[in-house]
């Protein structure tokens, strides 16, 4: 929260495109998890390794900006982006249920809990919850041995699904016809906080059931003050950091850079699409330099690096957009300024002092929100739409180029190839080589190139793999893809 | 089940309109509950009282048929029908949550269940579940004193809401675009059994949590063979039945008759509407005579009387309807026969021997289905649509006569009057006078007559209170209500 607030304020003040909202995103979370597992398996201090990744990051961004490297993005087509987006959604959904299963294992459904808890004294039958702490080496260890409680597992699933369904219902409610528009949109926009609040109320009123709560530090301090301070020693905190690893950190640095580059580039394209009629242009190279440099410096303090957050940035831009009145409203202008971004960043910082409220939130209600985010983010992805077309009769296919200008079987084949790639990425993610995920993702680029002209004609590929934002780095930016696609 | 099967077979063989499906319906359930409470409070044998109600029923139906009494139905307009329909839905929904609260009281959410169950020996702190049996007087008494179990209450709510949401989702799935039409409709039509089956599977796999199961007799026998046999003594089973009550039973008989008359009449109208192009006409008086006489005789055996079941009959008629091919399918004909009705009735009887499967059904899954039925049956009621219009901005109001030809405030006033009537009926239902419910319902008929010409003009009333089936007993049956309604 400290990192998001401070970096957000700096970015809003000096960035070339202050409409962007920066934050910690799903892909970065996957990377941090993978890098953490890797460090743990190699007995290396993760928090120190991050500094070296950060230093390499700064070096990489300077080189890329020096050679005006953003042209590289044109190789990353929708084909690759969509596989990645669905992977992120799947990870969100998977993690939710994974955590729920852990709760069921810690608090099983039995008739007599005393029998279970008596065996706490017996070292061969200990039951432990996921309450864990960092030990002196900075590694997570199981510390507290907790009792198994009745009703905990089922209340957790109720809070999770309750939170999910309420947030989901309010999202649909927003697009419905009930209540005047302003109140309806307000309820819809605050659907997630409303859902969390209701779950807090339920959890608070059920006093005799144990549920795990959100752990928040009191005031500004690091997550675990016993183990580290605000400044991380790049030579190692508790043991010397291996020299070879300082160089080897350039590999994960390339991976993080790919993630930040990809997400920030796509976000900039979507936010500054021509329909929005923005007056101020974007400065992609400057913003990338700023973002990655701030991230590199952040790693010295042991706080996360950030990227431009797609959903938050688009929501920000939409909120600032003024529509013309009339039956067919068009975008009139966008109120371009730096104030709103600064206010958002300050409010993120202020929430640090809301610990008395935040610590009342049951963790499982947040799992419900993760599930909500995973499922709702699927709906905007064309590959997901095409996956649903696999089980949709042809007469209901949409009037989109990918469905009308390409033979149905060819479209299904394209979807199937993406599904195979997704499956492979999932296997990599679940394996010991999860750190290699960005590399495997990049392999989909030559695959797409290989398929163009062999399995799919270039025109078919243009329809199936058309850019969403319609702002491409192609030679003919003015040509509408739809007009070029042949009828089947 | 014996009653439904035998009466169903007889009705299908000799009824004038064998497309009707007869069964035990919501309004009859409300009556039986009210009559049971009344008998209990007066210390009268309920099962014997039903015989006298049955005898009076036969007398009433003979009189009504002799004077061709079905003209009476024209007084019962949509205004009254809708209030009654919503009341039934509300009762369904209320009962579901009421039963859930009972489970939470019997199995509270506490940390230590042994503490609770130790007090079973202490008469001042007994915890009892709703496992109850009929005593020698035929009254329900709390019999078994059961332990409070962990996880039971929360698993019950999970099974109930799980069953509700799956059935609800599959209902929507049926109207969606996924999977080929035949498979989609099949899944949609069997949504309720699929939902129940899934809940059985979940409940079966959670071995160490107690849930109450459906109680089904093994083979053909009465519900409680200890207390009564197949033949009820009209003079009293365990004590003499009071003479004055034999005469007084004509009052509840009138109430039951109103219910059966109302529901059967409406069902016949809907099933035999002209669009369906049925060749064989209906014989309302004959069917009513048959139905009520069978019901009266059934009461001697202590089994329920039945009425024509609206939803089941319409589903039956629709299943037999042959549509013409083409872009605008129209009804071609209805396969009118007696076989399908007989098969349905025989299968109801056959399910008596499915006790090994039925006894696996957790009761709370059925509560979920009651909730589903309560909520889904709301959607077909115009009064419910108008209640939603109370919170819908005017621009989204539908292009229906009641919304376009009447001033919005007048429409809302009409809805408000109905809501007040509904509230009054609810108060009566919850009070000690719940048996008087049909009488209070009938009072809405003079209220509607009073409002016509005073608060609402006759034309406004025609738009607001238009008959759904468009087969009315009015003088000008050919006139479309819509054409007559004035623009506001």
Automatic annotation (TrEMBL), chains A, B:
Signal peptide: none annotated. It is found in: Membrane. It is a multi-pass membrane protein. The chain crosses the membrane at residues 9-31, 51-71, 83-101, 153-170, 182-202, 241-262, 283-306, 339-358, 365-384, 411-428, 435-456. InterPro entries: Anion_exchange, Anion_exchange_CS, HCO3_transpt-like_TM_dom, HCO3_transpt_euk. GO terms for molecular function: bicarbonate transmembrane transporter activity; solute:inorganic anion antiporter activity. GO terms for cellular component: basolateral plasma membrane. It catalyses: hydrogencarbonate(in) + chloride(out) = hydrogencarbonate(out) + chloride(in). Residues 1-467 form the Bicarbonate transporter-like transmembrane domain. One of its GO terms (biological process) is regulation of intracellular pH. It holds the Pfam family HCO3_cotransp. It comes from the Eukaryota. Keywords: Anion exchange, Ion transport, Membrane, Transmembrane, Transmembrane helix, Transport. Its main location: membrane. NCBIfam families: ae. Belongs to the anion exchanger (TC 2.A.31) family. PANTHER family: ANION EXCHANGE PROTEIN, BAND 3 ANION TRANSPORT PROTEIN. This is Anion exchange protein. It comes from Champsocephalus esox (pike icefish).
């Amino acid at each position: 929260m400290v990192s998001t607030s401070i970096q957000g304020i700096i970015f809003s003040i000096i960035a070339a495109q202050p409409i962007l909202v920066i934050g910690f995103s799903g892909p970065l979370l996957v990377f941090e998890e993978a890098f953490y597992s890797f460090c743990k398996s190699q007995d290396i201090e993760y928090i120190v390794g991050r500094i070296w990744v950060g230093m390499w990051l700064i070096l990489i961004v300077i080189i890329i900006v020096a050679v005006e490297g953003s042209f590289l993005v044109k190789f990353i087509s929708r084909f690759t982006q969509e596989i990645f987006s669905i992977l992120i959604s799947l990870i969100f959904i998977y993690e939710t249920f994974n955590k729920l299963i852990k709760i069921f294992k810690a608090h099983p459904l039995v008739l007599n809990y005393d029998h279970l808890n008596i065996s706490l004294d017996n070292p061969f039958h200990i039951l432990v919850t996921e309450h864990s702490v960092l030990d002196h080496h900075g590694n997570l260890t199981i510390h507290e041995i907790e009792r198994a409680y009745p009703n905990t597992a089922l209340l957790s699933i109720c809070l999770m699904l309750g939170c999910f369904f309420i947030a989901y219902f309010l999202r649909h409610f927003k697009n419905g016809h009930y209540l005047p528009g302003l109140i309806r949109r307000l309820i819809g926009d605050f659907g997630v906080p409303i859902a969390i609040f209701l779950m807090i109320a339920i959890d608070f009123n059920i006093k005799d059931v144990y549920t795990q709560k959100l752990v928040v530090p009191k005031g500004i301090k690091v997550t675990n003050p016993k183990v580290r301070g605000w400044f991380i020693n790049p030579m190692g905190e508790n043991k010397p950091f291996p020299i070879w690893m300082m160089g080897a950190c350039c590999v994960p640095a390339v991976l993080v850079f790919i993630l930040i580059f990809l997400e920030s580039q796509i976000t900039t394209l979507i936010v500054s699409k021509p329909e929005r009629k923005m007056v101020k242009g974007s400065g992609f190279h400057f913003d990338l330099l700023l973002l990655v440099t701030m991230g590199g410096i952040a790693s010295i303090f042991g706080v996360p690096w950030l990227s431009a957050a797609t959903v938050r940035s688009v929501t920000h831009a939409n909120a600032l957009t003024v529509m013309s009145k009339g039956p067919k409203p068009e975008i009139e202008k966008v109120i371009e300024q730096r104030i709103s971004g600064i206010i958002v960043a300050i409010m993120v910082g202020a929430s640090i002092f809301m610990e008395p409220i935040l610590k009342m939130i049951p963790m499982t209600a947040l799992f419900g929100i993760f599930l909500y985010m995973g499922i709702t983010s699927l709906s905007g992805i064309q590959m997901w739409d095409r996956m649903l077309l696999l089980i949709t009769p042809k007469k209901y296919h949409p009037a989109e180029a990918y469905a009308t200008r390409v033979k149905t079987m060819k479209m299904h084949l394209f979807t199937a190839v993406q599904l195979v790639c997704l499956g492979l990425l999932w296997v990599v993610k679940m394996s010991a080589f999860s750190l290699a995920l960005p590399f495997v993702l990049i392999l989909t680029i030559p695959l797409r190139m290989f398929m163009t002209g062999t399995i799919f004609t270039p025109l078919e590929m243009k329809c199936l793999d058309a850019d969403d934002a319609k702002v491409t780095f192609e030679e003919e930016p003015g040509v509408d893809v739809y007009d070029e696609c042949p009828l089947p």
